[in-house]
Design a protein that fits this description.
Length: 751
Amino acid sequence: MKETIKQLELFFKSSNFDRGIRVGIALALPFAILYALGYFEFAIPIVLGAFLNAPGDMPGSRKRKINAILISTGLTMLITAIILFAKPYLPVLLIAMGVIAFFVSLLSVYGFRASLVSFSGLLAMVIAFAVDKTSLTAILIQVVFLGVGGLWYLAVSLSFQIIFPKKDQNQLLSDTLHLTGDYLKLRAKLLSTTKKRDQYLRQSFVFQNQINDKHETLREVLLNVRKRSGRSRYEEKQLLIFLSSIKIFELIEAEQMNYETIDKTFKGRKEFLKPAKQLNNVMGDHLIRLSEVLMQNDPLPRKDELLTALDKTNDSIRDYIDEFKLPQAREGALILKNLYDYQEQLLEEIMAIRRTMANVKEASKVSLKRQDASQFLTLHEYRLNMILQNLSLDSTLFRHSLRLSIAMLFAYSLGLFFEIQNTYWILLTIIVIMRPSYGLTKERSKDRIIGTVIGAVIAVGIVLLTQNQILYAVLALISLVFAFALIQQNYKSAAALITISIVFVYSFINPEALEVIQFRVLDTLIGAVIAVVANYSLLPSWEVFNLKQVLIKALKANKAYLHATQDLYQDPSSHTLAYNLSRKEAFLAISQLNAAFQRLTQDPKSKQKEFQLIYEMVTLHQTLLSAIASIGNFIAQHQTTPASVEFNVLIKRISNTLQGALDILEQTSSQDPIAKAKADEAQEKLLNEYKRLAHLRDENIKQGNEKLDTETLHALQEAYLISNHLGWLVSLSDNLKRSTKKYDQTILQLE
């Protein structure tokens, strides 16, 4: 019960509920005022204008939000005018429908924000079919008041941002910390399990993609170049929490180890990994609690459990050495020590978040220069050239736009032929649930149908029990507020609430509400079927054939990250910024690959060609990234020896192998070959250097010098990590090249 109350409190304090309230006020206020004043005919277009332009109000910089809503307002006005003027002329109307549906949906090439503006345009086209205006004056009045509604919604949105300026940022930070905590706990499972490791790895792909999406939005909000100089103390706090969350995520990625080596080294000894696993769980739970504190303003949780778990992890290293004795225990002890170092760094970042949230004045200030910060922003290309580049059947969005246009024309023609009363409801269902991905379209269709039926049943029950129009108006508004609040979190519930809202609006205006309900359910079913069938049969875009460009981007990003790590090893002071930028690009590229893989899993089983091969490639890319991050993190956190010739030779060997995989996908040849024997010799020398240091340590122990100084420990850690991880990277890159070649032969060449 206590947990349920806490979750309800978090929901009501969330920016999602805040957004629902914004939409509710933007719709209810003009409707109530104009209705009371007797100008009901003006209330409808203003309310519609506000409703149509609400989708563009997403978290992000104020400038981009304003631009999105203004563009959306202009687009909805233009499309409404075109459809209303074309309605009396069926051939013109059909052409207008097809052209608008195609080009407006193609706006999604400009990114997620543009896709929401695109949705507003498509929604305006559909709703225009429900508007009964024929004269020039009536149409112009409708269009003008739609624009007024859009500007009114913008004013409401900006007002909320002034009153609650940090609501979106706090929600994003809270969501990010919560996801990161869950991800850290998942990593704990990966450490000791063997049976469910594949299952947990697939879950990790989802977390990585979700966290990267949050980071991208937060970068736009918090790192965007500001015209005014400086930042407020509150903005400084948010930025500090964000930067620590990024470091935690990157440390979690770097913490991924060679599980085969761990399984082999700790076979029958997994109890020595339990303290590290427990520490991950404790830190994960702490991050989740901090995410809740951000929204609830509760006292910070106690840190005792964190410190106790860290001490136990450190003790497990000594216990391992005491039981298995040196030198036999050295490899296992170094693995535990490296793992402990990662976790200690993780705990330092969690403590930094605690200090920031506690308003400790001594908390570090952000020293990132403005010109450096701007480099971490992902810039979107808004030139017309982006549209032109996608005017090809090779483009997934081009296929989707064409498919959507055909589906809508077919649905409208079907409505005309069978004289369906509200064809626009079928069209509405199509634009709401149809997505470029078949799997997502199918899932949304199912949720839409179930939600609509549930909403219809609830609405019928209430309509049969009471005939109070004031109650209908109140319930319509409340259900709409909650629908907008839940639409990102639970689409099925949102669909049910939207249905309830629509039914009550009709009941308020028209007493024949039950007839409305049965037609809404039927039209939703027809629209869902058309959307799913169209996605499956009209220029289908199966993810297995769309992976090529995503794989190319991932290979290029990992290769660039590898070279940036090499540069960092040569001179950390001069290459830190370049390293951080390449790391960010690599994480984003792998996140996009993970997202593509998730879409693949949603395709029909018959279309998931070479599923195991693709899963292997995605896993190899992810592990490659983690191995590079592990080396880079060690270099950044320790005083290292100069990079050896052998290190550079092996980096070149790995880089050439990655380039070989790229050449296969791009059908090019640009390798600078390096002799395998030379690379093997370099690897052997690195391993011998570790053995030499280990031998010296053994000699010291024999002479009674059992105390290990920090310099010797770091030297052993460095030699062990560099030799093992470079060997691991050589193996990973070789396997990736082989898998890429097989992917090319079994999928691309047969496409």
